[in-house]
From TrEMBL:
Residues 1333-1353 have a biased composition (Low complexity). This is Myomesin-2. Gene3D superfamilies: Immunoglobulins. One of its GO terms (molecular function) is structural molecule activity. The keyword Repeat applies. PANTHER family: MYOMESIN-2 (PTHR13817:SF22), TITIN (PTHR13817). Residues 1312-1332 have a biased composition (Pro residues). Keywords: Immunoglobulin domain, Muscle protein, Repeat. It comes from the Eukaryota. It comes from Austrofundulus limnaeus. Residues 359-454, 470-563, 569-664, 671-768 form the Fibronectin type-III domain. Residues 132-223, 247-345, 987-1073, 1208-1291 form the Ig-like domain.
């Protein structure tokens, strides 16, 4: 028999009727329970009698041993005790057969009882009038010839409607064609079966339901196809020729079914149903069809279908609002079809512009011809957006991605004729909606159409302009815990009606949300995805091609709650105790309460060997435990439980396992029971239980809790020591895993039997779970615990416990609830209220939480509570004072908050003062400041100041004691401010002298002046001596500065700046000494240290020097040199010094000990700037060699031969006179001396005499000079380290001639001496090179002994320039190279 799923928009209609009935008749249910249960018992007795008769048939014979007398039973038991294994096997087989038969009989009894209950329910509903309504409408079918077809529908109404079937408007009479038609009506489901269809059975069939309140009709078309014709077409996609195993021959059972789904435009969604297929053949999957709003879907780019791997899958890769609707999966099976339906909602994607409308939907092309194509569409739903003002239509040629706008201005109706198409070309169309905010996203493009001439075409012309009228009354009713059933009256005019848009909003909110995004054709709709327990209102708009109607009136507010129904069956019946004549049983509450609190339980019992159930209680049992009396000892009994609520009594539970009535005598306790869970989180939970009814031979002292993962039998005991209370916090769980628990009671005699296993519990918190919050009410000051439930229903209650014991009507606490929130308020909190509080929200999936109230937390809340109950104006700042300019004193206090009605008063020395002469009192509500200003503060103002504040119920006061030293300091400051005010009446310093250091380390003394004029004078002084800066001070600019370049200790002293004019004088003094001097040096060091370069090595004749260049250096800076981390002190070996540009450290006569890392540290008091140099390895070797070279060169320079003095530059002498050229020479060893004339060596003779006395005095004497003696004379003094070459120009004139102007000769280039012993003197001097100018800054030209050179080639003498001309010849003491002798 094929399973049938009722469409979602019709599914809950029956439940709604039951709900309304239950609401009106709930108060009569409990009263009628006894009568109903008696009737039920009578019906059950009849069923059992029939079952007994059935058991008497040959298929089953009642064993004779079950009908023995007492004596026969005793004999049977004696024989049975001695029977072997064979008899035990027979007994097990007999028991199995008995239980199987009993289960079958129970199933039959339950089915019959259900029929009776439905019949009775129908009788009860007769009082509620209702016109016929199709809950499940007829659906069209396409079948093959000679195959059967079944049309079925579900109808509701009161009185029960009569259904008649019509074919093409003609009544179907089964008697007219015996065996052709079969009409059935069961449980409100009406069906018409046509056997062996023929082509002539193709027609429109209708089912007409009628009662005294009206008529309803449902229609569907049956198409019968003949497989053989070439023109025949299989609309179902079935293969005409059936192979040996066809998909329609498979047995298919749906398992997991796709739920109501929600998508967004542009995204994708996947609908999946899993199934079990028998036989499961990989190459022959089941035949599945997908429908959207009863229209068959076919695979395309927008719809992907697959059936494999035990699942039927539908993928919509590019969602649009056109995809919204009721999706149905129909699977063809051996027995017919099985199907499942659920709604898919598609919401608008984010608009391109905020406030723009949603995209239009269902774009189609009509009236296709060569002149134009008429494009029509459906408008989008607008909720909070501005109204739509029009639409733009775009077209695109097939195969192209270029869209062209067809209309220049928006069209206001939902259709538009597109002109200008090319004949024979194919097009797609799309539409965009426009409002004042912008343009919407484009709709899904239409199917491809071709502009061709059509002989006949259906013309779509709208002549009636205008939108439809608003729908009528909207009624919302309960459906499920997350959905509401909405129905409404259609508009009066339904012409061109395309459907309806349904909007909803939460009660109390002004924001509407769209419930559907595609016009819905029927006038009833199920709104899904609502928040459980929340209250909503709804409205409806009608949709046509001309736009949207006005909104309907809003529905009445309705809370999202499940429809009322009877509770499900209890379960988990367990035996707690037995005394031989009674059995105590307990059970678990139904998993589904039916939307109303379970307020009654009914227990039935029966002998395990019989089928007849007997009622145990006629009056309802409210607790889930019951003791059944009047039992026969030694007999096995079975029990079943029924639960009742306002809607009635639910189905009975499954029979319990057989329980033997025999007295319990064991010493250990019986099982604990009623295991439940609270505060389930991802890693923990709390398990609770009740104490065993049977305690054994001693009192129960504790409990052990065992845990195992679901599916395993490996239990782990969670507590090493038995716990005395009836709960246990379990931690260390793995999130997402499922566990089962059991509890064992302990007494002095041992551990009792374990409890029944708990229900499996998954370690995972409910979505949106919140914890208990402790707080203090801001208005009343009450201390409370509060919980906001994550889900709630109409029957939910908040059950509070302390240490997991129900609080109930406790005088120490009061429980209140409002909406989703429950509050436990303490009436008089103290230490007795400390403990662990927990709350459980009933009739939910386990929403619960706990909070441990500690002493510290309670004390903190008690303090806050006291402050609220005894309000005090909170103060940000207590009473204080400040000195204002002019010497005024302001007393002020600041409150956290003040109201406009605040009152206050100031009391000074126990006397209230008010605003008046000498003081001013005021307040500011915004800032919370209350103040009193005293204009003239004198010694009379010493004392105690108090301000008292009253603001509503709150009050406070603050005092300030202003006496003694505190008052003297305040008075002194007030007098100073008065003087300052007087000072500022004339020219004055707005900022006194201060220093600043520029980036180039220049120290500047600066100040700022105010109230000056051009005539104001400014003078600088140091130690009372005036300083006149290069740039005169400009007082008009408001700032004056005195630079102190190259700052050092010499700049210490007292500096003074004086500003004056005819209005007065002001002075600022700045003492640069002590800490101020150190601060300036540190500021210089900060800049200089940051600019310091890396250490640089420089070799000198004295040793190796390390240098650090910086913007400025002075010895007052805190500079430390270090070698290998040790500080270096200045000594003969290590000399430390510096210049304005750098700091240096000289290593004199270095050795290997001086190798290593060197560093200089420049400290500014905060930061230390460090620069390092590694003087080791090759760096030290190269430096040491360079040092030796320079040292040798310096020694040579010091000891070379030279002319100390005595020779003139130019000599003018008259002939016949004697000329004596004498000079002092020096050198170590004693130098050799040679004289030259015109670069030729002069030999000693009678005319020219050369002498060298004592190795110190050299002379050249010419007797009776003649003009031929004129010329350039030179002396060459040299030893092994070098020498010097000095020239003298001699001019001889005749007697009576004018004295000639002296001429100076050209300087000679240096001629270095040989490196070792000098060459022997030669009498023939070699002339020196004529072009070797010596730098002007050198006075002598030396001949270094360490640099060997070749002998210069003599050249002709150079003319001597006039004496008055500036000559390049070096002066008298210039070092001159000595030419070597030949």
């Amino acid at each position: 028999m094929a399973s049938q799923v009722i469409p979602w928009y019709k599914k809950k209609h029956v439940s709604q009727v039951k709900t309304d009935y239950a609401y009106h008749h709930s108060k009569h249910v409990v009263k009628q329970q006894t009568e109903s249960r008696k009737t039920s018992c009578k019906s059950a007795s009849q069923v059992q009698a029939q079952a007994t008769e059935a058991m008497a048939e040959p298929a089953y014979t009642v064993p004779v041993f079950r009908q023995r007398t007492a004596e026969e039973t005793e004999e049977y038991q004696r024989v049975t005790s001695n029977v072997g294994k064979g008899l035990a096997v027979i007994q097990e087989e007999l028991h199995r057969m008995r239980m199987a038969t009993k289960a079958q009989v129970d199933s039959i009894a339950i089915q019959r009882e259900v029929k009776d209950l439905m019949r009775k329910s129908g009788d009860l509903l007769e009082e509620f009038p209702k016109m016929p309504d199709f809950l499940v409408a007829l659906r069209p079918h396409t079948v093959w010839e000679k195959t059967p077809v079944k049309l079925f529908c579900t109808v509701e109404g009161n009185p029960r409607p009569i259904v008649k079937w019509y074919k093409g408007g003609v009544l179907v009479n089964p008697l007219d064609a015996p065996g052709k038609y079969k009409i059935e009506s069961k449980y409100g489901v009406h069906s018409l079966i046509i056997s062996r269809c023929v082509v002539s059975d193709t027609a429109e069939y209708s089912a007409v339901a009628t009662n005294q309140h009206g008529t309803a009709t449902s229609k569907a078309t049956i198409i019968v196809k003949r497989p053989g014709g070439a023109t025949e077409f299989c609309q179902l996609g079935l293969v005409p020729h059936l192979t040996e195993i066809h998909p329609s021959k498979l047995e298919v059972t749906l398992l997991e079914r796709f739920p109501v789904s929600f998508g967004v435009e542009g995204n994708s969604i996947k609908l999946v149903c899993t199934m079990v297929v028998v036989p499961d053949l990989p190459n022959i999957p089941p035949l599945a069809q997908w429908y959207r709003d009863d229209k068959l879907l076919k695979p395309s780019k927008l719809v992907e279908m697959s059936v494999n791997g035990g699942a039927a899958c539908l993928i919509l890769p590019h969602l649009a609002k056109d995809d919204e609707g009721l999706y149905t999966l129909r699977i063809f099976t051996k027995d017919g079809t099985t199907e499942h339906s659920a709604y898919l909602f598609v919401s608008d994607a984010a608009p391109p512009v905020a406030g723009a409308p949603g995209a239009p939907i269902n774009v189609k092309a009509f009236d296709i011809n060569s002149e134009y194509v008429l494009v029509a569409w459906k408008p989008p739903n607008t909720v909070n957006e501005a109204p739509i003002t029009g639409y733009f239509v775009d077209r695109c040629e097939a195969g192209s991605d270029t869209w062209v706008q067809c209309n220049d201005s928006p069209v206001k109706v939902c259709k538009y004729p597109v002109h200008g198409l090319s004949l024979g070309r194919s097009y797609h169309f799309r539409v965009r909606a426009v409002n004042k905010a912008g343009i919407s996203r484009p709709s899904r493009k239409s199917d491809q159409v071709t502009a061709i001439d059509a002989a006949e075409s259906e013309r779509l012309h709208g002549t009636d302009e205008g939108v439809p009228s608003a729908p009528g009354k909207v009624v919302a009713t309960r459906n499920t815990k997350s959905s509401v059933f909405v129905q409404w009256e259609p508009p009066k005019s339904q012409k061109n009606l395309l459907g309806y848009y349904i909007d909803g909003r939460a009660a109390g909110s002004k924001d509407w949300f769209a419930c559907n995004h595609k016009p819905f054709r029927h006038n009833r709709f199920v709104v899904h995805g609502l928040i459980p327990g929340e209250t909503y209102v709804f409205r409806v708009q009608a949709v046509s091609m001309f736009g949207l109607s006005e909104e309907s009136q809003e529905s009445s507010p309705i809370a999202v709650e499940p429809a009322l129904a009877t509770p499900s069956a209890p379960y988990g019946i367990t035996m707690l105790s037995s005394d031989g004549s009674s059995i105590t049983v307990a059970w678990k509450s139904p998993k589904h309460c039916g939307g109303s609190k379970v307020n009654a339980y009914y227990i039935d019992k029966r002998d395990a060997d019989t089928l007849v159930w007997k009622e145990v209680n006629l009056s309802a049992v409210t607790e889930r435990i019951c003791t059944v009396d009047s039992l026969k000892e030694g007999t096995f009994y079975e029990f079943r439980i029924q639960a009742g609520n306002l809607a009635g009594v639910g189905l009975p539970s499954a029979p319990s396992a057989p329980m033997k009535c025999e007295a319990w005598t064991m010493a250990e306790p019986g099982p604990a029971y009623d295991l439940s869970f609270s505060e389930v989180r991802g890693d923990s939970l709390v398990i609770l239980w009740k104490a065993p009814v049977y305690t054994g031979k001693s009192a129960v002292t504790g409990y052990f809790v065992d845990m195992a993962e679901k599916g395993t039998s490996e239990f782990v005991t969670l507590n090493e020591e038995a716990v005395s209370h009836h709960y246990l916090q379990v931690a260390g769980l793995q999130e997402g895993k499922t566990y089962v628990f059991r509890v064992r009671a302990v007494n002095a005699n041992g551990v009792g039997k374990p409890s029944q296993l708990s229900e499996p519990v998954c370690a995972k918190a409910l979505p949106g779970t919140k914890e208990i919050v402790a707080g203090v009410d801001e208005e009343t000051g009450d201390i409370f615990l509060s919980l906001e439930a994550c889900e709630i229903c109409e029957t939910s209650k908040f059950e509070w416990s302390k240490n997991y014991k129900p609080i109930g009507d406790c005088p120490r606490a009061k429980v209140t609830a409002k909406g989703r929130t429950s509050r436990l308020t303490f009436t008089n909190p103290d230490k007795e209220d400390l403990g662990r509080y927990s709350v459980v929200v009933t009739d939910t999936d386990g929403d619960s939480s706990s909070y441990t109230l500690t002493e510290d937390a309670l004390n903190t809340m008690l303090e806050l509570s006291y402050s609220i109950k005894h309000p005090v104006v909170p103060l940000k700042h207590s009473l204080n004072y400040e000195i204002l300019e002019k010497g005024h004193v302001r007393f002020w206090v600041q409150a956290v908050k003040l109201s406009p009605s605040v009152s206050y008063r100031f009391i000074v020395n126990d006397k209230e003062v008010t605003s008046g002469e000498g003081q001013k009192i005021s307040h500011d509500v915004a800032s919370g400041v209350i103040q009193m200003t005293v204009d003239h503060f004198t010694r009379a103002n010493e004392g105690t100041y108090t301000v008292q504040i009253h603001d509503g119920k709150a009050k406070t006061q603050s005092s300030l004691v202003l006496v003694g030293d505190v008052f003297k300091a305040a008075l002194k400051e007030a007098e100073f401010q008065r003087k300052e005010h007087t000072r500022k009446q004339g020219p004055h310093f707005s900022e006194y002298l201060y220093f600043k250091v520029t980036e180039d380390c220049t120290v500047t003394l600066a100040c700022k002046v105010a109230n000056v004029k051009k005539e104001s004078a400014f003078h600088w002084y140091k130690e009372d001596e005036e300083i006149v800066p290069e740039t005169p001070p400009n007082v008009v600019s408001g700032a004056c500065a005195l630079p102190l370049p190259l700052f050092s200790r010499k700049d210490q002293g007292v500096y003074k700046a004086v500003l004056s004019d005819d209005r007065g004088k002001d002075t600022s003094v700045f003492d640069i000494s002590g800490k101020v001097f150190d601060d300036i040096i540190n500021a210089i060091a900060h800049i200089a240290g940051a600019s310091a370069s890396d250490l640089v090595m420089q070799c000198t004749p004295e040793g190796i020097r390390l240098q650090c260049y910086m913007s400025y250096y002075t010895e007052e800076m805190k500079t430390v040199w270090k070698h290998k981390g040790n500080k270096i002190a200045s000594s003969e070996k290590m000399r430390i010094g510096g210049t304005a540009e750098m700091a240096w450290m000289q290593i004199c006569d270095p050795s290997d000990k001086e190798k290593g890392q060197y560093a200089i540290e420049i400290s500014d008091g905060v930061t230390t700037h460090t620069r390092t140099f590694d003087l080791s390895g090759q760096a030290y070797t190269d430096a040491y060699e360079e040092y030796l070279r320079l040292k040798a060169a310096a020694f040579a320079e010091k000891n070379r031969g030279r002319v100390v003095g005595g020779l003139p530059d130019v000599v003018t002498i008259m002939e016949e006179k004697s000329l004596s050229l004498t000079c002092t020479v020096w050198g170590e060893p004693t130098p050799e001396v040679s004289w030259f004339k015109n670069e030729q060596e002069v030999a000693s003779n009678e005319h020219t005499k050369v002498t060298f006395d004592g190795g110190k005095f050299a002379s050249l004497v010419i007797n009776k000079v003649t003009p031929e003696d004129s010329g350039k004379y030179s002396i060459n003094v040299r030893n092994k380290y070098g020498g010097e070459f000095v020239e003298i120009t001699v001019s001889v004139y005749k007697h009576g001639e004018p004295i000639p102007e002296p001429k100076v000769g050209q300087p000679k280039a240096a001629t270095p001496a040989p490196p070792k012993s000098p060459a022997p003197p030669s009498k023939t001097p070699a002339p020196a090179p004529s072009k070797a100018p010596t730098p002007a800054q050198s006075q002598k030209s030396s001949t270094p002994a360490s640099t060997p050179g070749s002998t210069p080639v003599p050249k002709s003498p150079t003319p001597t320039p006039p004496r008055s001309v500036k000559s390049p010849t070096p002066p008298r003491f210039m070092k001159s190279p000595t030419p070597p002798r030949k």
